[in-house]
Amino acid sequence: MVTLNPPLKHRILPIYGEPFEFKRGLEKVPVKKIQRKLNVRWKHIVLFFLVIAGFFFGLMKAYLYLINCDDFAVKKTEIACRQEFVGRDIRALLDASKFGNLLLLDIGRVQERIEAHRWVKEARLRKIFPSTLKVEITEREPAAVLKTGENFLMIDRGGVWLERLAAREDANLPLLLDSASFKDSYQEKLGLAWKCLDALTPGQRLEVEALDLSDSQSVSVYLLGQTTRLILGGERFSERLSFIRTYKETMEGQNGPLEYVDLRFDDRIIFKPLPAVEMAAVPNPRQEVN
What we know:
Elements: H1 42-68, E1 76-80, H2 84-93, H3 107-115, E2 120-128, E3 132-139, E4 144-148, E5 151-155, E6 161-165, E7 175-177, H4 186-199, H5 202-207, E8 208-212, E9 219-223, E10 229-233, H6 237-255, E11 258-262, E12 270-273, H7 276-279, H8 285-288
Parallel strand pairs: 1-3, 4-7, 7-8, 10-11
Antiparallel strand pairs: 2-3, 4-5, 5-6, 8-9, 9-10, 11-12
């Protein structure tokens, strides 16, 4: 007896929620790899080396042509600077006819030669092909006049000597004095001078004629046309200078011309009247410190 529908207990039921899938060819299909042997013959090796040799030979010929070509010889130098006399000095220093090929020019060596000029703070060089060298110069800025012995030297903020002056009046700059002619603590004293000048207002800076830096920890100031030494110390320069400008006439009216006024102390002012024998011949502050 044939039963078309088997009992429920003999049926194989799928897991609840899992659909029936029909899969064919679950086994892996082997991939056939094609292996070829690369046969390198001696002719290939020779050809490869010939190509490499030809490439480098052509490169060498091109290099030799470029360094010997007159089109790349330096024919012109362009100098950009603010001071005309600096430009003249640099043009005289740089002879374009001696530079040769622009490709072979040693920029660093030329830059060192230019920056050896005392007025040149920085030089930037650029090659402009085919035959031009461009030089951009930043000059040093005069900041003060230094008195050493009987000499007056114009210097920048770095203390670099720029020019020797015949007289102090040749430059409208603050005069820096030192009883030791700046043989000791040079940079320290210059730093104190710049600190003082930077702290002053523009109007106060115009009134200052000289700064005495004999004491590396204290600045003494001489005002234009006056011989009184104003000892300001190492701080509060603008405040102390404003104070003495307000009361100096009153102090001189009561005590006569003053030799110095010491403003370094917050709770008192120390001053010394000029001796009577010196009132008739008041010393010049520019000649007082040698």
